[in-house]
């Protein structure tokens, strides 16, 4: 019976109310280590070196007038205790403390700050951050041109000085423009007369999308999708993409060739400067990019534009069932 009651009593005591338990209290104090290190009492230091100070006092002697000796003069031997030793070396101790104190520069307060403020910010052990770099403020003309130019579009001013180019004749402008792109093997370059480009632009605004065939040896032809965009008043861009990739990815398809028409010299010089690039590793060579560019000019505004080409453009834009790829291939063969 006793062995049965003992666990019961233990269970009852263990589950008693919290007020019946013996609550353990901890009287702990938290001290800042930095405070203890830098604010130690001088008595503790004296007690630690009491024997050495007594020995030093026995070796020194106090003058009869009990005046403190200068810092650079050593006392004579025979002092009674440590207190007399402190009086003798008082000036030396004071001068030594002044030399070891590191004076911190006080920052100058701005006129807006109040001098009566008693709150002080502790110094940081880390060096202050470097000042911010000076911000570039563009001129109004540059800011207006940058705001109207979307990202990724290079204007004509990034290639040549427009103001100086306007003073040159047409032949020299064409020579300079071709020379700017002669070192790039993947570059497409041309100079288009104003009348020819006007016809091309008029047709492009009515039919901004179209497809063009690219002949392949022993493989028939490969269809490519082109799209016109007019990002700024002085630029017109054409993007060439594989039709299969455009059907798969839509607007996220990567073009293999880009062509940009710069219209900055059209009104004063009657010229439109064309610049394009064929991206490497996307299945199209530079010669094939030139073929697509030639087909674009023939379909969109070449001299002696045929009715059949215009009909193909209109039927493609309208999405009519009358558009046939076979007719497009036959018309492209006539361009050769």
Number of strands: 6
* Cα end-to-end separation: 116 Å
Order of helices and strands: HHHHHHHHHEHEEEHEHEHHH
The largest sheet is: 6 strands, antiparallel
Residues in helices, as a percent range: 40-55%
SS summary, helix count = 15
Low-confidence sequence ranges: 16-20, 62-66, 111-119, 141-147
3D architecture notes:
This protein has 336 residues and is of the alpha+beta class. It is 41% helix and 15% strand. The protein has a six-stranded antiparallel beta sheet, sandwiched between helices. A hairpin with a 3-residue loop joins β2 and β3 (220-232). The longest helix is centred in the C-terminal third of the chain and has 16 residues, at 286-301. The chain is elongated and about 130 Å long. The N and C termini lie far apart (116 Å). Residues 16-20, 62-66, 111-119 and 141-147 have low confidence and may be disordered.
Topology at a glance:
Elements: H1 2-14, H2 33-38, H3 42-48, H4 50-58, H5 82-88, H6 90-100, H7 140-148, H8 162-165, H9 170-180, E1 187-193, H10 194-206, E2 209-216, E3 220-232, E4 235-242, H11 243-249, E5 257-262, H12 266-269, E6 271-278, H13 286-301, H14 307-318, H15 325-333
Antiparallel strand pairs: 1-6, 2-3, 3-4, 4-5, 5-6
Feature tags:
six-stranded antiparallel sheet, 336 residues, alpha+beta, single chain
């Amino acid at each position: 019976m006793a062995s049965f009651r003992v666990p019961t009593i233990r269970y009852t005591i263990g589950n008693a109310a919290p007020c019946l338990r013996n609550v353990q209290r901890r009287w702990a104090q938290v001290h800042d280590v930095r405070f203890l290190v830098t604010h130690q009492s001088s008595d503790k230091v004296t007690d630690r070196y009491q024997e050495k100070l007594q020995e030093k006092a026995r070796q020194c002697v106090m003058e009869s007038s009990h005046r403190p000796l200068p810092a650079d003069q050593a006392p004579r031997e025979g002092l009674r205790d440590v207190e007399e030793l402190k009086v003798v070396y008082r000036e030396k101790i004071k001068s030594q403390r002044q030399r070891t104190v590191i004076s911190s520069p006080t920052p100058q307060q701005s006129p807006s700050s109040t001098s009566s403020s008693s709150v002080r910010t502790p110094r940081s052990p880390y060096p202050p951050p470097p000042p911010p770099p000076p911000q570039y403020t563009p001129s109004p003309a540059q800011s207006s041109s940058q705001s109207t130019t979307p990202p990724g579009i290079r204007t004509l001013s990034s290639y040549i000085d427009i103001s100086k180019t306007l003073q040159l004749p047409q032949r020299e402008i064409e020579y300079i423009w071709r020379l700017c792109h002669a070192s790039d093997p993947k570059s497409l370059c041309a100079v288009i007369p104003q009348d020819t480009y006007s016809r091309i632009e008029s047709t492009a605004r009515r039919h901004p999308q179209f497809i063009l065939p690219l002949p392949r040896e022993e493989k028939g032809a490969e269809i490519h999708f082109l799209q016109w965009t007019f990002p700024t008043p002085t630029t017109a861009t054409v993007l060439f993409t594989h039709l299969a990739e455009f059907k798969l990815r839509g607007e996220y398809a990567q073009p293999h060739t880009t062509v940009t028409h710069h219209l900055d010299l059209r009104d004063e010089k009657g010229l439109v400067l064309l610049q394009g690039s064929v991206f490497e590793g996307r299945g199209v060579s530079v010669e094939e990019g030139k073929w697509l560019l030639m087909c674009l000019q023939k379909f969109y505004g070449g001299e002696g534009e045929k009715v059949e080409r215009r009909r193909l453009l209109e039927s493609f834009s309208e999405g009519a069932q009358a558009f046939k790829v076979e007719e497009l291939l036959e018309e492209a063969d006539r361009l050769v």
